[in-house]
Amino acid sequence: MMFAPAPPTADKTLGRAMLLSLTIGFLMLITKMTAYVITNSAAIMSDAAESVVHVVAVTFAFYSLKLSAKRSDKSHQFGYDRISFFSAGFEGAMIVLAALFIIYEAVLKFIEGPRLSDVDVGTIISGVVLVVNGVLGLGLIQLGKRKKNLILEANGRHVLTDSVTSGGILIGLLLVLFFPKNWIQVGTWTFDPAYFDPIFAVLAALNILSEGGKLMRRSFSGLMDRVTPDEERKLEDVLAAACQAEKAGYHEARFRNSGNRYWIQVHLLFDDNARLRDAHRSATRIEQTLAASFPGCMVTTHLETRKDHDAIHPPAPEV
Hints:
Blueprint: E1 2-3, H1 12-39, H2 42-68, H3 83-112, H4 119-146, H5 150-178, E2 185-186, E3 189-190, H6 196-223, H7 229-245, E4 249-257, E5 262-270, H8 276-293, E6 298-305, H9 306-312
Parallel strand pairs: 5-6
Antiparallel strand pairs: 1-6, 2-3, 4-5
């Protein structure tokens, strides 16, 4: 038997949050590109490049969010939930590509020698971007966790990464502005504080490279149905307590996370003289308990009697 919640519907709150993220992403991209034109800063250029990736990734995530809410059909009988993992993986891949581009451009700037102008303007802009993306990123992550939506949470982490990047770039620009110009000297060579600009661009790139890698690993784990120890422990605890209350046993319990919800299947064992009606009602109550602990989950149960189980499922031969 199977316990299924009501078909998924599009959550307007999630849609509005993603649209807000996309709109602010466009505005931040325009702001950063303007700052780069004014300053010729490699660090600000790296921040702008990351924003290009962000806008592309959010556009895909926005589409994924709508697709994940579609009902199952003949061609996708388990629904479209797993698009969440593709979306997170795509966003992670885009972040990695942006990081590699940033490192390449920053190294070129370092070799050629930085030529900066109006650094004070760039510093102010980076500070504004840091605050806006920080607030937006934290809000998206919290909403994604509360709604158990991987697409929104991944997008929030990308925005927060963008904010951290802007913070590193802000530090670099402040050092360019206020670091003593003759403080480091080796023979006739004097360190130009302008070199902090490409240095911090590379540091920012390494940070977003790490975040992109984390998103890709999470996407791969989800697509491969990897179960975390915490998830497994929670399922075992809830299932054991529910079965004990119904005087039932269980085996072959397994589950997976499809991105927006869990799919759980388990074999339930009842006494040999149990009536089908009573066993069915007990199984329904167990399914409802699981659904309460894993909101939106799909639960499939297979009912057996203990004596039948031993006869039909002999122990597996030793290898």
